[in-house]
From TrEMBL:
Stated name of the protein: Monosaccharide ABC transporter substrate-binding protein (CUT2 family)
Subcellular location: Cell envelope
UniProt organism field: Prauserella shujinwangii
Keyword Signal carried by entry: yes
PROSITE patterns tied to this protein: TAT
Record family assignment: Belongs to the bacterial solute-binding protein 2 family.
Chief localization: other
Signal peptide: none
Any GO MF annotation of the entry: carbohydrate binding
Record's compositionally biased regions (Polar residues): 29-42
Length: 350
């Protein structure tokens, strides 16, 4: 993600959306209208202006997946945009005990705020609480801690809405093509994870609303290898498919390989997360992949921006409230050939 793209990313870290047009809070007295100026809730100023110097600690799992690698890249690149931020990033790890030790080291080092994407939210809850109890605000990214006492703010994706938007897009495209009784397939991620269950439920609910249902379903493990293996099995079991949703674009590398190896092109496919690789294929429009539903690692960029504001006791420039919100849920936009250029800046390398 380039500096210019980061700089233009609107309300989360840009300047003055509400600006001089302050938000009216309404009259608070019983005086006749016009007898005095109404009380106003003013916008919180220009967040891009340098404030006090702050050190932000950052901890995330190992970059063994394109999406996770992009989380750390985005966090570091966002920190570089601010002259008043020093980022102290630990080495990514999938060892829970090691991540706990790394966060404790950041706490002991006296950082002004922490941004943590825990490998395991439950396991990292205690160290999040330790930071908060020591007066260090924590921005919890994506995998949520067990209690809100462990974080000042949570920011993450909307897994249920991801499935909903994939389902609505597929249903609308099938209706536009006058396809009746379609065979709709799903290549999920790890079924044991709540995020997979939420994505599948959203997908099912949206399709049901439109009078459709999931006909064929397999579950992979968010890797290209399992994506290829499970999709090959799916294709063998289903001689005809009309539409397919794959939960994860990293996994999608293997899904696409299985489809191409089988010589299948009678259906269209929707991906998940928003990798640059899939966006480029959507733009080229020369394969079955026609859309992807965002679950963008740019949430890590936003987390750094929010941690900076919290550490500087600032609010968000586009909001009248004096404090940064307690939670932000990112939106799972559907990226198609028609709008792909708009979202290419948040794409990540699978």
């Amino acid at each position: 993600m380039t500096g210019s793209n980061l700089a233009r990313r609107g309300f989360l870290f840009g300047a003055a959306g509400v600006g001089a047009g302050a938000v009216l809070a309404g009259c608070t007295s019983n005086e006749p209208a016009g007898s005095e100026q109404p009380q106003q809730a003013a916008a919180q100023g220009d967040n891009a202006e340098p404030g006090k110097q702050v050190t932000i600690g950052f901890s995330a799992p190992a970059a063994d997946h394109g999406w996770m690698a992009a989380v750390t890249i985005n966090a570091k690149q966002m920190a570089e945009q601010f002259s008043d931020v020093t980022l102290n990033a630990t080495e990514g790890t999938n060892d829970v005990n090691q991540q706990i030790a790394q966060v404790e080291s950041l706490i002991n080092g006296g950082v002004d705020a922490l941004v943590i994407l825990p490998y395991d939210g439950k396991a990292l809850t205690s160290v999040g609480r330790k930071a908060m109890d020591n007066g260090i605000p924590v921005v919890n990214v994506d995998r949520v801690f067990d209690t809100a006492l462990a974080y000042r703010m949570w920011i993450g994706g909307d897994n249920y809405r991801m499935g909903v938007n994939a389902g609505y897009y597929i249903a609308q495209r099938l209706k536009d093509n006058n396809v009746s009784n379609p065979v709709i397939a799903e290549v999920a991620g790890l079924d044991s994870l709540p995020l997979t269950q939420e994505r599948s439920q959203g997908f099912k609910d949206a399709l049901n609303t439109e009078g459709f249902k999931v006909t064929r379903r397999v579950a992979a493990e968010f890797t290209p290898e399992t994506g290829e293996q499970k999709t090959a099995q799916l294709l063998q079991a289903a001689p005809k498919i009309d539409a397919l949703w794959n939960h994860d674009d990293d996994q999608g590398i293997g899904v696409m390989a299985a489809i191409e190896n089988a010589g299948r092109d009678e259906f269209f496919m929707v991906g998940g997360a928003g990798s640059k690789n899939m966006m480029e294929r959507i733009k080229a429009d020369d394969s079955v992949i026609k859309a992807t539903v965002l679950y963008s690692p740019s949430m890590a960029s936003s987390a750094i921006a929010m941690a900076r504001l919290i550490a500087q006791n600032k609010g968000m420039s586009d909001l009248a409230e004096h404090e940064v919100p307690a939670s932000i849920t990112t939106y799972s936009a559907v990226v198609t050939k028609e709008n792909v250029d708009q979202y290419m800046d948040v794409g990540f390398d699978s």
